[in-house]
User: Fold this.
Amino acid sequence: MSKALRLLPLYTLWALMLSCKSGSDPVIVPTNLVLTANVATDGTGVVTFKATADNATYYTFDFGDGLSSTPLQSESGAVAHGYTAGGTYVVKVTANTSATAFISTTKDVTVSLGITVPTTGYVSADNYPGKSLVWSDEFSSATINASNWTFEKGDGCPNCGRGNNELEYYTDQNAIIQDGNLIIKAKKENVGGKAYTSTRMITKDKVSIQYGRIDIRAVLPRGQGIWPALWMLGDNIGTVGWPACGEIDIMEMIGGGGRENTVYGTVHWNQGGHASYGKSKTLATGTFADEFHVYSLEWTDTKITWLIDDVEYASVNVTSSLSAFNKSFFFIINLAVGGNWPGNPDSSTTFPQYLIVDYVRVFK
Assistant:
Protein backbone atom coordinates (compact mmCIF):
# COMPACT_ATOMS: atom_id res chain seq x y z
CA MET A 1 0.00 0.00 0.00
CA SER A 2 1.33 3.46 -0.87
CA LYS A 3 2.30 5.93 1.86
CA ALA A 4 -0.40 8.38 0.76
CA LEU A 5 -3.16 5.73 0.95
CA ARG A 6 -2.01 4.61 4.38
CA LEU A 7 -2.53 8.18 5.61
CA LEU A 8 -6.26 8.27 4.64
CA PRO A 9 -8.79 7.97 7.47
CA LEU A 10 -10.54 4.59 7.81
CA TYR A 11 -13.97 6.01 6.87
CA THR A 12 -12.55 7.30 3.61
CA LEU A 13 -11.24 3.83 2.73
CA TRP A 14 -14.69 2.34 3.38
CA ALA A 15 -16.30 4.88 1.05
CA LEU A 16 -13.79 4.10 -1.70
CA MET A 17 -14.51 0.39 -1.46
CA LEU A 18 -18.28 0.94 -1.78
CA SER A 19 -17.79 3.08 -4.83
CA CYS A 20 -16.17 0.12 -6.61
CA LYS A 21 -19.37 -2.04 -6.28
CA SER A 22 -22.36 -2.02 -8.66
CA GLY A 23 -24.91 0.65 -7.91
CA SER A 24 -27.85 -1.90 -7.59
CA ASP A 25 -28.74 -5.59 -7.93
CA PRO A 26 -29.91 -6.75 -11.43
CA VAL A 27 -33.68 -6.82 -12.07
CA ILE A 28 -35.08 -10.37 -12.45
CA VAL A 29 -37.91 -10.62 -14.97
CA PRO A 30 -40.08 -13.78 -15.18
CA THR A 31 -39.61 -16.05 -18.20
CA ASN A 32 -41.37 -18.97 -19.91
CA LEU A 33 -44.92 -17.79 -19.15
CA VAL A 34 -47.57 -20.38 -20.08
CA LEU A 35 -51.36 -20.03 -19.62
CA THR A 36 -53.78 -22.97 -19.86
CA ALA A 37 -57.58 -22.90 -19.68
CA ASN A 38 -60.07 -25.69 -18.91
CA VAL A 39 -63.66 -24.84 -19.87
CA ALA A 40 -66.33 -26.69 -17.88
CA THR A 41 -68.51 -28.98 -20.01
CA ASP A 42 -71.65 -28.65 -17.88
CA GLY A 43 -72.78 -25.35 -19.37
CA THR A 44 -72.05 -23.32 -16.21
CA GLY A 45 -69.58 -20.98 -17.92
CA VAL A 46 -66.83 -21.73 -15.40
CA VAL A 47 -63.27 -21.71 -16.74
CA THR A 48 -60.28 -22.87 -14.66
CA PHE A 49 -56.99 -21.12 -15.50
CA LYS A 50 -53.43 -22.09 -14.63
CA ALA A 51 -50.45 -19.77 -15.25
CA THR A 52 -46.83 -20.81 -14.75
CA ALA A 53 -43.59 -18.87 -15.23
CA ASP A 54 -40.02 -19.08 -14.03
CA ASN A 55 -39.11 -16.57 -11.27
CA ALA A 56 -42.70 -15.29 -10.90
CA THR A 57 -43.84 -14.37 -7.38
CA TYR A 58 -47.44 -13.58 -8.29
CA TYR A 59 -49.82 -13.38 -11.27
CA THR A 60 -52.61 -11.00 -12.29
CA PHE A 61 -55.56 -12.01 -14.50
CA ASP A 62 -57.84 -9.93 -16.70
CA PHE A 63 -60.66 -12.24 -17.86
CA GLY A 64 -61.70 -10.06 -20.77
CA ASP A 65 -65.39 -9.78 -19.94
CA GLY A 66 -65.29 -6.27 -18.44
CA LEU A 67 -66.86 -7.34 -15.17
CA SER A 68 -64.03 -6.00 -13.00
CA SER A 69 -61.78 -2.99 -13.47
CA THR A 70 -59.20 -4.52 -11.09
CA PRO A 71 -57.31 -7.61 -12.31
CA LEU A 72 -57.44 -10.63 -10.03
CA GLN A 73 -54.15 -11.36 -8.27
CA SER A 74 -52.99 -14.89 -7.45
CA GLU A 75 -49.73 -16.15 -5.97
CA SER A 76 -50.27 -19.72 -7.19
CA GLY A 77 -51.41 -18.84 -10.71
CA ALA A 78 -54.47 -21.12 -10.37
CA VAL A 79 -57.84 -19.35 -10.55
CA ALA A 80 -61.41 -20.03 -11.70
CA HIS A 81 -63.77 -17.55 -13.30
CA GLY A 82 -67.46 -17.83 -14.15
CA TYR A 83 -68.64 -16.17 -17.36
CA THR A 84 -72.24 -14.99 -17.49
CA ALA A 85 -72.57 -14.94 -21.28
CA GLY A 86 -71.34 -17.19 -24.05
CA GLY A 87 -68.67 -15.97 -26.42
CA THR A 88 -64.94 -15.76 -27.07
CA TYR A 89 -62.90 -13.78 -24.56
CA VAL A 90 -59.28 -12.56 -24.69
CA VAL A 91 -57.79 -13.42 -21.30
CA LYS A 92 -54.60 -11.62 -20.25
CA VAL A 93 -52.26 -12.91 -17.53
CA THR A 94 -49.21 -11.12 -16.18
CA ALA A 95 -46.40 -12.88 -14.31
CA ASN A 96 -44.65 -10.55 -11.86
CA THR A 97 -41.61 -10.38 -9.64
CA SER A 98 -42.45 -6.78 -8.80
CA ALA A 99 -44.72 -4.03 -10.03
CA THR A 100 -42.08 -3.08 -12.60
CA ALA A 101 -40.67 -6.51 -13.47
CA PHE A 102 -43.16 -8.64 -15.39
CA ILE A 103 -44.14 -10.35 -18.62
CA SER A 104 -47.63 -10.93 -20.09
CA THR A 105 -49.43 -13.21 -22.50
CA THR A 106 -53.00 -13.60 -23.78
CA LYS A 107 -55.24 -16.54 -24.64
CA ASP A 108 -58.57 -16.75 -26.49
CA VAL A 109 -61.19 -18.70 -24.51
CA THR A 110 -64.54 -19.72 -26.01
CA VAL A 111 -67.38 -20.28 -23.55
CA SER A 112 -70.77 -21.85 -24.26
CA LEU A 113 -73.51 -21.56 -21.68
CA GLY A 114 -75.82 -24.54 -21.56
CA ILE A 115 -75.26 -28.08 -22.78
CA THR A 116 -74.17 -28.78 -26.34
CA VAL A 117 -77.07 -30.53 -28.06
CA PRO A 118 -76.36 -32.44 -31.30
CA THR A 119 -77.95 -30.94 -34.40
CA THR A 120 -78.01 -34.16 -36.42
CA GLY A 121 -79.96 -37.39 -36.26
CA TYR A 122 -83.24 -39.02 -37.21
CA VAL A 123 -86.56 -37.16 -37.09
CA SER A 124 -89.81 -39.12 -37.06
CA ALA A 125 -92.97 -38.22 -38.96
CA ASP A 126 -95.42 -35.64 -37.63
CA ASN A 127 -98.36 -37.92 -38.51
CA TYR A 128 -99.16 -41.47 -39.65
CA PRO A 129 -101.93 -42.78 -41.93
CA GLY A 130 -105.03 -43.68 -39.93
CA LYS A 131 -103.59 -42.24 -36.67
CA SER A 132 -103.94 -38.94 -34.86
CA LEU A 133 -101.66 -37.28 -32.33
CA VAL A 134 -103.43 -37.71 -28.98
CA TRP A 135 -100.73 -36.46 -26.61
CA SER A 136 -97.21 -35.09 -26.74
CA ASP A 137 -94.65 -33.15 -24.83
CA GLU A 138 -92.36 -31.16 -27.12
CA PHE A 139 -90.47 -29.63 -24.17
CA SER A 140 -90.88 -26.23 -25.79
CA SER A 141 -91.86 -24.24 -22.68
CA ALA A 142 -89.44 -22.53 -20.32
CA THR A 143 -89.92 -25.13 -17.59
CA ILE A 144 -90.94 -28.77 -17.29
CA ASN A 145 -94.73 -29.08 -17.57
CA ALA A 146 -96.06 -29.99 -14.11
CA SER A 147 -99.37 -31.04 -15.70
CA ASN A 148 -97.50 -33.88 -17.39
CA TRP A 149 -94.64 -34.83 -15.08
CA THR A 150 -93.95 -35.54 -11.42
CA PHE A 151 -90.42 -35.84 -10.00
CA GLU A 152 -89.73 -38.99 -8.01
CA LYS A 153 -87.13 -38.10 -5.39
CA GLY A 154 -84.73 -39.96 -3.14
CA ASP A 155 -82.94 -43.30 -3.39
CA GLY A 156 -86.05 -45.48 -3.38
CA CYS A 157 -85.66 -46.61 0.24
CA PRO A 158 -86.95 -48.78 1.84
CA ASN A 159 -86.44 -50.41 -1.59
CA CYS A 160 -83.01 -48.76 -1.66
CA GLY A 161 -81.35 -48.64 -5.04
CA ARG A 162 -84.82 -49.36 -6.45
CA GLY A 163 -84.17 -53.08 -6.36
CA ASN A 164 -81.19 -52.77 -8.71
CA ASN A 165 -78.47 -51.53 -6.31
CA GLU A 166 -78.41 -48.20 -8.14
CA LEU A 167 -76.19 -45.48 -6.69
CA GLU A 168 -78.01 -42.26 -7.54
CA TYR A 169 -80.19 -39.94 -5.45
CA TYR A 170 -82.99 -38.52 -7.58
CA THR A 171 -83.78 -34.80 -7.26
CA ASP A 172 -85.81 -32.20 -9.15
CA GLN A 173 -82.65 -30.11 -9.68
CA ASN A 174 -81.05 -32.23 -12.39
CA ALA A 175 -83.57 -31.64 -15.17
CA ILE A 176 -83.92 -28.50 -17.30
CA ILE A 177 -85.43 -27.35 -20.58
CA GLN A 178 -82.93 -26.00 -23.10
CA ASP A 179 -83.72 -25.00 -26.67
CA GLY A 180 -86.79 -27.25 -26.85
CA ASN A 181 -85.16 -30.26 -25.22
CA LEU A 182 -85.52 -31.97 -21.88
CA ILE A 183 -82.03 -32.49 -20.44
CA ILE A 184 -81.49 -34.81 -17.47
CA LYS A 185 -78.07 -34.54 -15.86
CA ALA A 186 -76.28 -37.25 -13.85
CA LYS A 187 -73.71 -35.64 -11.55
CA LYS A 188 -71.05 -36.89 -9.18
CA GLU A 189 -72.02 -35.22 -5.90
CA ASN A 190 -72.92 -36.38 -2.40
CA VAL A 191 -76.62 -35.99 -1.59
CA GLY A 192 -78.71 -38.09 0.76
CA GLY A 193 -75.85 -40.46 1.48
CA LYS A 194 -75.39 -41.23 -2.22
CA ALA A 195 -72.39 -40.31 -4.37
CA TYR A 196 -74.42 -39.34 -7.47
CA THR A 197 -77.52 -37.33 -8.33
CA SER A 198 -79.89 -37.54 -11.28
CA THR A 199 -83.59 -37.18 -12.16
CA ARG A 200 -86.51 -39.56 -12.58
CA MET A 201 -89.78 -38.20 -14.02
CA ILE A 202 -93.14 -39.96 -14.28
CA THR A 203 -96.61 -39.17 -15.72
CA LYS A 204 -98.47 -41.31 -13.16
CA ASP A 205 -101.97 -39.93 -12.34
CA LYS A 206 -101.44 -37.26 -15.02
CA VAL A 207 -100.97 -38.93 -18.41
CA SER A 208 -101.82 -42.56 -19.18
CA ILE A 209 -102.08 -44.41 -22.47
CA GLN A 210 -103.37 -47.76 -23.68
CA TYR A 211 -102.26 -48.77 -27.17
CA GLY A 212 -100.96 -46.57 -29.97
CA ARG A 213 -97.65 -45.56 -31.50
CA ILE A 214 -95.09 -43.88 -29.26
CA ASP A 215 -92.14 -41.89 -30.64
CA ILE A 216 -89.37 -40.60 -28.36
CA ARG A 217 -86.50 -38.68 -29.97
CA ALA A 218 -83.41 -38.67 -27.77
CA VAL A 219 -79.63 -38.54 -27.46
CA LEU A 220 -78.20 -40.97 -24.93
CA PRO A 221 -75.30 -40.46 -22.50
CA ARG A 222 -72.19 -42.62 -22.32
CA GLY A 223 -69.80 -44.13 -19.78
CA GLN A 224 -69.34 -47.13 -17.54
CA GLY A 225 -72.23 -47.47 -15.09
CA ILE A 226 -74.55 -45.05 -16.92
CA TRP A 227 -78.07 -46.40 -17.45
CA PRO A 228 -80.72 -44.27 -19.27
CA ALA A 229 -84.25 -45.58 -19.72
CA LEU A 230 -87.45 -44.55 -21.54
CA TRP A 231 -90.17 -46.86 -20.27
CA MET A 232 -93.68 -47.45 -18.86
CA LEU A 233 -95.39 -49.14 -15.91
CA GLY A 234 -99.00 -50.23 -15.49
CA ASP A 235 -101.28 -47.74 -13.75
CA ASN A 236 -102.34 -50.46 -11.29
CA ILE A 237 -98.85 -50.91 -9.79
CA GLY A 238 -100.09 -49.48 -6.50
CA THR A 239 -102.58 -52.32 -6.08
CA VAL A 240 -100.99 -55.35 -7.75
CA GLY A 241 -97.30 -54.49 -7.48
CA TRP A 242 -94.48 -55.32 -9.87
CA PRO A 243 -94.22 -57.31 -12.14
CA ALA A 244 -97.96 -58.03 -12.15
CA CYS A 245 -98.62 -54.45 -13.28
CA GLY A 246 -96.49 -55.00 -16.38
CA GLU A 247 -93.46 -53.06 -17.58
CA ILE A 248 -92.69 -51.92 -21.12
CA ASP A 249 -89.13 -50.75 -21.71
CA ILE A 250 -89.17 -48.68 -24.89
CA MET A 251 -85.41 -48.16 -24.64
CA GLU A 252 -82.63 -49.00 -22.19
CA MET A 253 -78.90 -48.61 -22.67
CA ILE A 254 -76.04 -49.66 -20.39
CA GLY A 255 -72.84 -47.69 -20.82
CA GLY A 256 -69.18 -48.66 -20.75
CA GLY A 257 -67.09 -51.30 -22.41
CA GLY A 258 -68.12 -50.23 -25.90
CA ARG A 259 -71.81 -50.90 -25.15
CA GLU A 260 -73.13 -47.45 -26.13
CA ASN A 261 -73.95 -48.74 -29.63
CA THR A 262 -76.63 -51.15 -28.33
CA VAL A 263 -80.09 -50.53 -26.89
CA TYR A 264 -82.71 -52.92 -25.51
CA GLY A 265 -86.50 -53.22 -25.78
CA THR A 266 -88.12 -55.45 -23.15
CA VAL A 267 -91.40 -56.34 -21.47
CA HIS A 268 -91.79 -57.74 -17.93
CA TRP A 269 -94.89 -59.39 -16.44
CA ASN A 270 -96.03 -61.94 -13.90
CA GLN A 271 -96.58 -65.52 -15.06
CA GLY A 272 -96.20 -67.70 -12.00
CA GLY A 273 -93.35 -65.36 -11.12
CA HIS A 274 -91.32 -62.76 -12.98
CA ALA A 275 -91.27 -63.32 -16.75
CA SER A 276 -89.71 -61.19 -19.46
CA TYR A 277 -89.03 -60.96 -23.17
CA GLY A 278 -86.77 -58.61 -25.08
CA LYS A 279 -84.25 -58.03 -27.82
CA SER A 280 -81.49 -55.59 -28.58
CA LYS A 281 -80.44 -53.41 -31.52
CA THR A 282 -76.81 -52.54 -32.32
CA LEU A 283 -75.77 -49.72 -34.64
CA ALA A 284 -73.55 -50.55 -37.60
CA THR A 285 -71.37 -47.50 -36.86
CA GLY A 286 -71.16 -44.94 -34.08
CA THR A 287 -73.04 -44.83 -30.79
CA PHE A 288 -76.43 -43.69 -29.57
CA ALA A 289 -74.64 -40.77 -27.85
CA ASP A 290 -73.47 -39.27 -31.15
CA GLU A 291 -76.77 -37.88 -32.42
CA PHE A 292 -80.55 -38.12 -32.13
CA HIS A 293 -82.38 -41.39 -32.74
CA VAL A 294 -86.11 -42.08 -32.48
CA TYR A 295 -87.17 -44.93 -30.18
CA SER A 296 -90.66 -46.11 -31.10
CA LEU A 297 -93.25 -48.57 -29.88
CA GLU A 298 -96.26 -49.88 -31.81
CA TRP A 299 -98.70 -51.23 -29.20
CA THR A 300 -102.00 -52.95 -29.99
CA ASP A 301 -104.24 -55.35 -28.08
CA THR A 302 -102.42 -58.25 -29.74
CA LYS A 303 -98.84 -57.16 -30.34
CA ILE A 304 -96.01 -54.91 -29.11
CA THR A 305 -93.35 -53.92 -31.65
CA TRP A 306 -90.09 -52.00 -31.09
CA LEU A 307 -88.53 -49.76 -33.74
CA ILE A 308 -85.47 -47.51 -34.02
CA ASP A 309 -85.57 -44.80 -36.67
CA ASP A 310 -88.70 -46.50 -38.09
CA VAL A 311 -86.96 -49.86 -38.51
CA GLU A 312 -88.50 -52.77 -36.57
CA TYR A 313 -86.10 -54.90 -34.52
CA ALA A 314 -88.34 -56.83 -32.08
CA SER A 315 -91.97 -57.80 -31.42
CA VAL A 316 -94.00 -59.88 -28.98
CA ASN A 317 -97.56 -61.20 -29.15
CA VAL A 318 -99.76 -59.99 -26.32
CA THR A 319 -101.89 -63.05 -25.56
CA SER A 320 -104.17 -63.86 -22.64
CA SER A 321 -101.17 -64.78 -20.50
CA LEU A 322 -99.83 -61.27 -21.09
CA SER A 323 -103.04 -59.54 -20.05
CA ALA A 324 -101.03 -56.95 -18.10
CA PHE A 325 -100.42 -55.23 -21.43
CA ASN A 326 -104.13 -54.76 -22.12
CA LYS A 327 -104.37 -51.99 -19.52
CA SER A 328 -103.28 -48.36 -19.27
CA PHE A 329 -99.65 -47.39 -18.56
CA PHE A 330 -97.76 -44.22 -17.53
CA PHE A 331 -94.39 -42.95 -18.77
CA ILE A 332 -91.06 -42.87 -16.93
CA ILE A 333 -87.88 -41.09 -18.05
CA ASN A 334 -84.81 -41.54 -15.88
CA LEU A 335 -81.03 -41.65 -15.92
CA ALA A 336 -79.68 -44.16 -13.39
CA VAL A 337 -76.10 -44.47 -12.18
CA GLY A 338 -74.73 -47.91 -11.33
CA GLY A 339 -76.69 -51.04 -10.59
CA ASN A 340 -76.70 -54.77 -11.12
CA TRP A 341 -76.99 -54.62 -14.90
CA PRO A 342 -74.56 -51.87 -16.01
CA GLY A 343 -72.18 -52.18 -13.09
CA ASN A 344 -70.87 -49.16 -11.24
CA PRO A 345 -68.93 -46.16 -12.57
CA ASP A 346 -65.15 -46.41 -12.55
CA SER A 347 -62.20 -44.14 -13.24
CA SER A 348 -63.10 -44.06 -16.95
CA THR A 349 -66.55 -42.55 -16.29
CA THR A 350 -66.77 -38.79 -16.74
CA PHE A 351 -69.42 -36.60 -15.15
CA PRO A 352 -71.77 -34.93 -15.75
CA GLN A 353 -73.59 -37.14 -18.26
CA TYR A 354 -76.74 -36.09 -20.11
CA LEU A 355 -79.91 -37.73 -21.39
CA ILE A 356 -81.45 -35.36 -23.97
CA VAL A 357 -85.08 -35.80 -25.07
CA ASP A 358 -86.50 -33.73 -27.92
CA TYR A 359 -90.09 -34.98 -27.72
CA VAL A 360 -92.49 -37.71 -26.58
CA ARG A 361 -95.48 -38.28 -28.91
CA VAL A 362 -98.43 -40.66 -28.80
CA PHE A 363 -100.54 -41.44 -31.88
CA LYS A 364 -103.72 -43.53 -31.97
Summary: The first strand starts at residue 31 and ends at 39. Helices lie at 3-6, 10-19, 237-240. The first helix runs from residue 3 to 6.
